[in-house]
Amino acid sequence: MSKKDEKKPLGKNGGDMGERGVYDKRNKLNDLTGKEWVFFTNSVWITGYSPTAKENIGLKYRKIHPSPKPPALIKEIIEFFTKSDGKILDPFCGVGGTPLGAALAGGERSAVGIELEQKYIDAYKKVCQAEGIKEMVMIHDDAMNMMSHPEVAETVFDLVIADPPYSDMMGKERTGQRKKLYNDSTPKPYTESEADLGNMPIEQFFETLRSIMQLCFNRLKPNGYMVVFCKDFQPQPGNPNLLHADIINELCKIEGLEYRGMRIWHDQAMSLFPFGYPYSFIMNQLHQYILIFRKEV
Ligand SMILES: C[S@@+](CC[C@H](N)C(=O)[O-])C[C@H]1O[C@@H](n2cnc3c(N)ncnc32)[C@H](O)[C@@H]1O
Asked: Could you write out the DSSP letters of every residue in the chain?
């Protein structure tokens, strides 16, 4: 037996989990072994869920939404930031990436989602029925009103996952190559509602996002985490449009909330387009930022 293969003694806090590695009994955050924990801390995360992959559960119903998140991706986030009885809140729940991820993560985990648009909630419910998945609480409302719902107001959450729409990005007119490629000059907004963050000018968007995240923060347990998805806009002359940095600065105005780092998610199922060809460089942004914050009180 080589030195490398020799088993190290477990120590008083170690629990042998076989192939999974060693679980440290002092782990208050999740049920992962050291090996699994370290794997998750990689700052770059590449996934390749094809539209037909089993990880892309219920995509047939969820694809009515312009940007649903893969439940398998959310499952891993939930497994890192909660124990098996974790409670998760998602204020912009869409077609249910978060509650589906919570159900896939299993145990006693539960999720509460809030979504402005009823048809997205209906699509989520169809997935649960078709796939035999445990249905979680979905509230049809503006997330600004979350405290009027006892499912939110009377719960202390272990984790908040937010995947907001980004300002009036969805409604911006497409020009040039993008217009040709999409065969349509105006992308569809998520909803027609004025309360939809995707329909707000940038200043109002930042203010509203911070107010909603403050409400989530108030319902989060001490040392609980907040995970926020975002993408940068294309740079414009005089404006680098680093939305992820602006979001970090905006959310750090919430007293007691600290930015702890990010994971860059590259979804290999995304296609490359010849934007700018043959005139200038325009990036194909295939990555998203997964920004991680913690309630430090
Ligand atoms: C990027 S999508 C979230 C997708 C989601 N992660 C999923 O897997 O389906 C953002 C969602 O926020 C919703 N939304 C926008 N403004 C809202 C608000 N004020 N309150 C609640 N939901 C809102 C939109 O309708 C949209 O479905």
From this structure: --GGGSPPP--TTEEE-GGG-EEETT--S-S--HHHHHHHT-SEEEE---TTSTTSTTHHHHTTSSSPPPHHHHHHHHHHH--TT-EEEESS-TTTHHHHHHHHH-TT-EEEEEES-HHHHHHHHHHHHHHTPPP-EEEES-GGGGGGSHHHHT--EEEEEE----GGGTTSPP-HHHHHHHTSSSPPPS-S-TT-GGGS-HHHHHHHHHHHHHHHHHTEEEEEEEEEEE-PPPPBTTB---HHHHHHHHHTTSTTEEEEEEEEEEETTSPP--TTTTT-------EEEEEEEEE--
